Amino acid sequence: MTTRSWKCMCGSFEASVTGEPLMACWCHCTLCRQQAGSAMQLGVWKEVDIKSGADNLIEYEAKAGTGTLRKSCKTCGSFCIKVMGNGVSVAPLGCLEPVIKPTMHIFTEDKGGQDIMFPDLDCHDQMP
Length: 128
Prior knowledge:
128 residues; 1 helix; 5% helix
């Protein structure tokens, strides 16, 4: 099985995942667009191995009571990981080595006037 790793810009945070994601997507939800300024490439895994920097993360729960936490590096501000209320973890695909390409778009109803890159991928208005 392939292990993929990523780190934040300053190197304080480093993590890895093994195997293929449960889902690899472009997310067009309002929260991802606010965080990244555009659709985000995300991969969903059951388990993430945080190798360093867990104590250097700030957490933000955008929707109170959901238990979904977006975690960013305190030092450089990089988005590092999102932990969903159901316990799965979301990694930024654009940072993983080796690369995984998204296979679908989600929350396309939230994209506003933005065009969809790679329109040949499946599009879902909600979470599939």
